[in-house]
Amino acid sequence: MQEALRKRIEAAGQAHLLAHYDAADAAAQAKLEAQFSVIDWEALPGLIAGYVLKRPETAIPADLAPAPFFPFPAKTAEQEKLYAEATAKGVEVLRAGKVAALTVAGGQGTRLGFDGPKGTYPITPVLHKTLFQYFAESIGRISEKYGAPLTWYIMCSELNAAPTKEFFEKNKFFGLADGQVRFFVQGTMPAIGLDGKLIIGAKDSLALSPNGHGGTLLALRASGCLDRMAADGVEYLSYFQVDNPLVPIADPLFIGLHILEGSQISSRMLPKTCPTEKLGNFCLSGGRLHVIEYSDMPLELAERLNPDGTLAFLSGSPAIHIISRSFVESLTQDGTLKLPWHRADKKVPFLAADGTVVKPESTNAVKLESFIFDALPMAERAIVVEGSRKEMFGPTKNATGVDSAESCRAMLVERDARRLGLAGVQVPRNADGTPAALVEISPRRVVDDADAVEYFRANPVTEPIQPGQTKAFGK
What pLDDT is attached to residue 58? Predict the structure, then answer.
């Protein structure tokens, strides 16, 4: 190890790592040195003092107010005119190849009872297409629709990067063009013991964990993806998470509003179903947008009502954004991420003196994560646009229940049944109004309502759909 690196580690108060390094074999030393070399040792003592040795408190600004948002549908003639102009602008930049898709896909399917990257989980109700396949087919159709390839950037974790790439290669990238799918790996942060010392997780490794979805931005720079985007003429990133197959990947209206309003980062909002729904709250303070996590939002504010009885703090965040590439460049220009950290107390396995790995029974460490929504107050201009919960948000976090694969499949069926109805194809309904048949429309053929009308006009359904029937269209 270079002497300069040793001195930086010692100056950060982490000399115990050097003793462990010196006792390790050559292969372990090489791996440890690689991990040590990417840590910002000069910033570490401040992080430990501010986030570990004391528990940071979330300060709620005195001037906190509900964030303004663009309603959908438009409420006035002026808004209708703006939305038409925005949609045209969105179509223009999509046709010019100035938009790329950006998916955060570092998670595993553990909570779904599934062994593998979450993106490889089968989600569609009839053909059981995986999340990755559903997105890939959507991107294929979007590329065809606008006459320009929509490049797809997928952020993996160190844990699932290899199996994710293998999955795409095995499936021939679901028909996407060569080079249209680009992978990069999320950064990590070392776990920090409650005493302020970095935890050694194995003979050849620190205890590391992903650095949060805010780390997406820094990983784009570190991986060279930002340079690649600039070379390709990509100016806008459509950001979404891998567990939400209902997300509109390339919505011209959303993209166009981002551009016309001069926004650096734009966010979808969903009207909350109740004051304490587990969505971050879009708020305004000091003239800047913020997201206050549901767990930090004072109940008095969460329950505050407008004169008409609606929630004052109505806007919940489903983690859907349009981000300007230039804004990402500004946030990461010196190779560091200009976002705050969030503390999470965890039980982190550690290497004992006898060389065995111990799994603690109680909290022994802090993991630090950055969140992408913390970029909002750093933007000179940021906007919020209302979205439809039924059409845009079906998170697949659990096997059954709320925000589950079960509820997501039901939403996919409902959306496709509605689109069939737009094309004049009636899906039978149960007494409660839900579809009485399982239907699935391929996103390779249909990515929006206009596509549905066009597709079924060219491919008419000649036989009525019967109650209890299972039917896929467009495959």
Answer: 81
The pLDDT of residue 59 is: 84
The rounded distance, in Å, linking the Cα atoms of 439 and 417 is 7
- List Cβ neighbours of 209 (8 Å cut-off, separation of 6 or more): 188, 189, 191, 346, 367
Split into its structural domains, the chain has a count of 3
Q: What is the pTM of this model?
A: 0.95
Residue 28 lies in domain: 1-42
The answer to whether the beta carbons of residues 227 and 65 sit under 8 Å apart is no
Same domain, 256 and 170: yes
pLDDT single digits (tens) 163-205: 999 999 999 999 999 899 999 999 999 999 999 999 999 999 9
**Over the stretch 128-145, which tens digit does the pLDDT of each residue have?**
999 999 999 999 999 999
CA distances from 328 to 280, 424, 465 (A): 22, 44, 48
Residue where a domain terminates, one of 370, 397, 424: 397
Which domain CATH number covers 145? 3.90.550.10
Rounded to the nearest 5°, which phi and psi values hold at 354? Answer: -85, 5
Tallying the residues shown for the chain, one arrives at 475
Residues 274 and 216 in one domain: yes
Q: What is the pLDDT of residue 311?
A: 96
Residues of the chain scoring pLDDT < 50: none
- Three-state secondary structure along the chain? CCHHHHHHHHHCCCCHHHHHHHHCCHHHHHHHHHHHHCCCCCCHHHHHHHHHCCCCCCCCCCCCEECCCECCCCCCHHHHHHHHHHHHHHHHHHHCCCEEEEEECCCECHHHCCCCEHHHCECCCCCCCEHHHHHHHHHHHHHHHHCCCCCEEEEECCCCHHHHHHHHHHCHHHHCCCCCEEEEECCEEECEECCCCECEEECCEECEEECCCCHHHHHHHHCCHHHHHHHHCCCEEEEEECCCCCCCCCCHHHHHHHHHCCCCEEEEEEECCCCCCCCEEEEEECCEEEEECCCCCCHHHHCCECCCCCECCCEEECCCEEEEHHHHHHHCCCCCCCCCCEEEEECCCEECCCCCEECCCCCCEEEEECCHHHHHHHCCCEEEEECCHHHHCCCCCECCCCCEHHHHHHHHHHHHHHHHHHCCCCCCECCCCCECCEEEECCCCCCCHHHHHHHHHHCCCCCCCCCCCEEEECC
Distance from C-alpha of 121 to C-alpha of 129, rounded to nearest angstrom: 8
